[in-house]
Design goal:
mainly beta; four-stranded antiparallel beta sheet; disordered N terminus; 15 strands; eight-stranded antiparallel barrel; Porin
């Protein structure tokens, strides 16, 4: 009797394991290293013709699969230095640190090609803001150091070997700051970048 009960329990357990999604075999964590290109929209309402340079830099992200189709992704990099221009003339520089958190839906979580879409929030901290001496004397400029905005993404992971993926990803981020001159608001500078990246990912 005890052997029969144990056999039934083992059979049920085996059936339950067989029904587990394939992602459980891979593990819930996907770590990617990517090369990212920032293309700024450079929308300026100050009348100063402000812009920053486009830039390519590395980033790393961590995706945790809550369910086979659902993952949360945290995108990180180190502070990036950008040049500030006014009507094409260099007037200063700044650094920005832009961690982004998104919630993703993966359409084909066990296939070779695994497309996804995501939406979430970006937080950017501006630091090391410097202006040319002539600009500093004339305008005493400054900027708001924190920005919160929405983020959207579309991408795909392509399995190239077991647990290893080639990743393609494009994000659009709402990123802006208030510009001040002589202590008064002069308007908004909207970076609102498009971020295109390619890299490798490993599933654990």
């Amino acid at each position: 009797m005890k052997f029969s009960s144990a056999l039934r329990l083992a059979t049920v357990a085996a059936a339950a394991l067989a029904l587990q999604p394939a992602f459980a075999d891979e593990g819930p964590l996907l770590v990617r290293v990517r090369v990212l290109h920032l293309d700024s929209a450079n929308k300026d309402s100050t009348g100063l013709g402000l812009s920053i340079n486009n830039k390519t830099f590395p980033e790393v992200d961590f995706s945790y699969f809550i369910a086979p189709n659902i993952a949360a992704e945290l995108i990180l990099t180190y502070p990036q230095k950008q040049t500030i221009y006014s009507n094409g003339t260099e007037i200063g520089s700044l650094k920005h640190l832009p961690p982004t958190l998104t919630l993703q839906y993966h359409f084909n979580p066990t296939g070779t090609v695994r497309p996804y879409v995501g939406a979430g929030v970006n937080y950017t901290n501006f630091s090391s803001v410097e202006f040319a001496p002539a600009v500093q004397t004339a305008l005493h400029p400054s900027i708001k150091h924190n920005s919160w905005g929405a983020a959207w993404q579309i991408g795909a992971d392509v399995e190239i070997s077991k647990g290893t993926y080639l990743n393609f990803d494009v994000k659009k981020v709402d990123l802006q700051t208030t510009v001040y001159a002589n202590g008064a608001s002069a308007g908004k500078f909207k970076v609102n970048p498009t971020l295109a990246s390619v890299g490798l990912g490993w599933r654990f």
